[in-house]
Structure formats: C-alpha cells, structure tokens
Amino acid sequence: MPVEKRTPLPVGNAIERIVNEDIQSETIEVSLNESLNYILAEDIVATHDIPRFNKSPYDGFALRSVDTLNASGDNRVEFNVIDHIGAGDVSKKVVGEQEAVRIMTGAAVPEGADAVVMLEQTVEGDQSFTIRKPFNRNENISFKGEETQQGDLILEKGQHINAGTIAVLATFGYTEIPVFKRPSVAIIATGSELLDVEDELEPGKIRNSNGPMVAALCKKLDLPCSTYKIQQDDLESSIQRVTEALKQHDIVITTGGVSVGDFDYLPQIYEALDANVLFNKVAMRPGSVTTVAVAQGKYLFGLSGNPSACFTGFELFVKPAVLSMMGAHKRFPQVVQATLMDNFKKANPFMRFVRAQATFDGKQMTVKPAGFNKSSAVVAIAHSNCIMVLPGGSRGHQQGYTVDVILTESQTYEWDAFV
Ligand code: AMP
Ligand code: MG
Predict the structure, then answer these.
(1) pLDDT the model gives residue 5
(2) What are the MoaB/Mog domain coordinates in residue numbering (predicted)?
C-alpha cells in the first residue's frame, strides 16, 4: 500500500476545529462543597445587597459627625457611651448629641450615627471617650449596597469555579450549584511493545508510560477516567476495544498507532467507527501525526505514542476540548512571554513545542529546554513547568529572542484564544 498523503493543519486551526464541534456536557447540580473547578452552567445574581446594611469597617465608636466639628488637639471633645455592640448585634438605641455607641467591625451602624471613630483615635475614660479631630459625615462607614446590589449579575455562565467563586456563592446562599458535567475519559495505550508498569522488561519491549501520564493529566482536570488494558497492535480487537470505550465514556484517548507504519491501526479504526476525522496531521513538532475524530457525538483523541508528543497533544488538544464540553469561556492555559536562553539554529517549517523550564528571576522571565528533547523523550517532561512555543518558518531561534511559553503547571485558564 502506498503511504497515505496527509496535509498538515496549523495548530491554531486544529484547535479551532476541535472546539467548533461544540460538543456539550449535560447540566447537573452539585453541592457547593463539590463545585470547585467545575464550570458554572447558569448566570448567578446577587440575592441581596452587599453590605446588607450600613456597617462599621473598624472597632470604634459610632457617633454624629456634627458633634465632632470643634474637636482639636487643644480642645478634646467628649462623648458618652450609651451602648456596646459586637458584630451580629443591632443597637436598639438612637445616637443623640455627644453620644456614641461602642461598635465592633461588621456591626450595623446605629440609628442617628453617621460616622465611626476608630478605637485608636480616642482616649477612653469611664463610660466616655474624647477625640482630638473632627470627622466627616459618612466617614468610616461601609454602605449598604456599595459592593453589590440585589439583582446584579455577579457570576457568569461559563465561569470557572475557584475558591473566590465559592465564597460568592456561599455569600448569597446558593447550596446547589448548576454546572456542566465533567466528561469521563477512556484511556487506551496501544502498542505490542508495551508492558505494564509492574512487568519485568523483555527484549524489544518498553513499559507503558503514556497510560499513567494521561491518567494523571486527566486527574489534574478532575476528570473521571478509566485506564484500559494495553491494546496490542491488532485491528479486530482494537476496533472492539475502542467501540466498547466509546460506549462507556464521553471521550476516548488512545496513544500510539496514529502514524503510517504497518501496525498503526488507528486510521482504520476511525474508518470502521465511521468517525469524522477532524485532522490527522498538524504542522507541529512533536506530534505531527496527532489525530482527532468525532464519532457518535464524542471526541476520539489519537495521541502519538511518543511520550513528549503525547503530553503536548493532551495540553494542546484535549484540554480545550474538555473545557469546551464543560462550557468554559476560557479554554486555553496561561501563555507568557519569556527570553529564550538557548539556540535553536535549525529552521523548521512546523511550529515546535519544547518541554521547558520557565524561571522568573525577579526582573524577567527566561526559558530553557528541560533536557533531552526529542519527541520520544520522557525525562524532560518531568523537569518541565511549561511548553515553549517556537513558531515555524525559515529561520532558527536564538538566545535572547522572546518566545511564547504555555504554563502547563499553572492551574488557571487565563486566555480566551490560543497564543
Ligand atoms: P507509535 O505512535 O505507536 O508509532 O509509537 C511511537 C513511539 O512511542 C514508539 O517508539 C513507541 O514504542 C512509543 N510508545 C508508544 N506507546 C507508548 C506508551 N504507551 N508509553 C511509552 N512509549 C510508547
Ligand atoms: Mg505503535
């Protein structure tokens, strides 16, 4: 059989094709405590003002500002303390002339008072205190509704739920949170050379490192995943295995077998499943053979068997797909710019993704390769905190150039577009 000719697609277009499939997870409700790292499936509105009442931001005394007008260093003005309240309490007293209520942070400003004097600004006596400066009307008061007003849109559908989001949901009494379900993932490592982690090595064989690595990448996204038995390079049983995985999961990730070798069966498997292949060649190194297809409304990711290519394929293609299914507005990891600390003299028409170490030295961000960096490399992945992006073209890249860096160990999604 002649080798199939494939047309390489630019990385950005490949990602676009994936997210344009617009495969959506269903909406479910989870408890507030379980909602971390889900994506909100509905807009959330403020159920009341924040603050809900005028309150004191300090420990001090609530009084009438008019009574402080003549206060100075030479003329200390005295106030009688008529009540004493803590946070959660409401004074029943009305503050009158030269009167004050002792008040703690978070407590409601009593009726009659229009300013709060901090404890540190007073000299206390018995049931009284003096001050040495005038206070303005409204000084040191947190006003009802100054942060948010009832009915305000405070969180948006598509927003990633972080600790701050949970604080907001708790503030407004949301106990059950509408979110998009996390897709479940089947992980199938293919290759007749593969052994399980616990197996003794044999001639010609290697241990399956992609399976555990992809499972870990899924876990980082809190995705439920099942790792299937190592799949031998055999067409019939491979079709069966992938069909079964597709039935039981929302996403199927295979590693290996997407190239044009004699035992690379993934293209035939996609054909047998009547899958729509979105692309089978990407203008990138490593992982140019990465293939993504859709069958029965589900994504099939055919990642390269080469560990560095497999890792890169997950970061570039699986992540945005998962976040897209989960309805996230921000689907791409944080990209920063860094000064390249190494030379890549050889020009490459394809965009290169290099597992790298980014460091901020207090002044500038620098980046260098994380070690031996062929697509087959595994050790460099462990020493990397980022993937450096070297655009393809007719020139190489030299030390001192500024390059884009995808922060793979950062858990936040900061950008709404790829590079
Ligand atoms: P393939 O994509 O099947 O052509 O495999 C490319 C290279 O990756 C080969 O050298 C394989 O032995 C290696 N490889 C394939 N699958 C795995 C795996 N699960 N873990 C580690 N290396 C693998
Ligand atoms: Mg193989």
Answers:
(1) 84
(2) 186-324
